[in-house]
Design brief:
This is VanW family protein. By secondary structure, the chain is α+β, with helices and mostly antiparallel strands. The chain has six helices and 14 strands. The protein has a five-stranded antiparallel β-sheet. It has a four-stranded mixed β-sheet with strand order 8-14-13-12. A three-stranded antiparallel β-sheet has the order 4-9-7. It is globular and about 50 Å long.
């Protein structure tokens, strides 16, 4: 074990995240207003629907807590405006996922294992934002995929390759608007579905986004993300379908 890993194990996660977030803020300083969150008061009548994505919220352990977390995050992102050349940061809008901000313990995938963490389930919201951004022609500034694929096909809320994991302080999802006019984001959370939409005040064709799998072995797959036929990303996943969340007693 390296000394860095030893220090990581000795320091509480909250402290490590605080340090990581401070370092990120220092790096972000030159971006200034590009990262400042902005919101519309309402959806203007003249704006046109650019893209819409609807995902099921699948039955799972701690589902009610996940729905609470999704609603909190979606409320923060709803009616967000991304001005031309501005950057939409998931965490700048949602804020830190802690109990003081109303977030609940949910299911999270951490280092290849399912665990209970406050804010668990928010990755579905960041994933639909990522997919919506691709369909809307936004440029991906920062995106992190899950390294482990834990789902069987009938359990997926989105196709493999359309995911974007977020970890406060360490991993963010950031999308830049290259269009000459602002894009407005809209989100709805229902008991069984998550809906994301993008709007713009000009005629604009949504991008065609496809995810093509390349099986590399019995437990490893590469997904090619294509936007209008051009490869945007290649993501490797280790496949562990059926991975279960330990019981509360086992995980304590």
């Amino acid at each position: 074990m390296t000394w860095r890993n030893l220090v990581r194990r000795m320091l509480p996660l909250a402290l490590r995240q605080n340090v990581a977030q401070w370092r990120r803020q220092v790096r972000d300083y030159p971006l200034g207003a590009q990262l400042m969150p902005r919101h519309a008061v309402n959806l203007p009548d003249s704006w046109q629907l650019l893209a819409e994505i609807r995902q099921p919220v699948m039955p799972s352990t701690l589902l009610e807590n996940k729905l609470i977390n999704l609603r909190l995050g979606a409320n923060k992102l709803n009616l967000a405006l991304i001005e031309p050349h501005a950057i939409c940061s998931f965490w700048r809008h949602v804020g830190r996922p802690v109990a003081q901000n109303g977030f609940m313990v949910g299911r999270n995938l951490v280092e290849g294992e399912l665990t209970r963490q406050v804010g668990g389930g928010l990755c579905q919201l960041s994933s639909i934002l990522y997919h919506l951004g691709l369909r809307s022609g936004l440029e991906v500034v920062e995106r992190h995929a899950h390294s482990i694929d834990i789902y069987q096909e009938h359990e997926r809320f989105t196709t493999l390759g359309a995911d974007a994991t977020v970890v406060w302080g360490y991993k963010d999802l950031r999308l830049c608007n290259p269009h000459p006019l602002a894009i407005l984001l809209e989100f709805e959370v229902h008991s069984d579905a998550l809906v994301g939409r993008s709007w713009i005040n000009m005629p604009l064709r949504p991008c065609e986004v496809t995810f093509e799998r390349e099986q590399l072995g019995p437990e490893q797959v590469r997904v090619h993300t294509l936007v209008d036929g051009r490869t945007l990303a290649q993501t490797l996943y280790k496949q562990r379908p059926g991975l279960a969340l330990p019981t509360a007693r086992q995980s304590s």
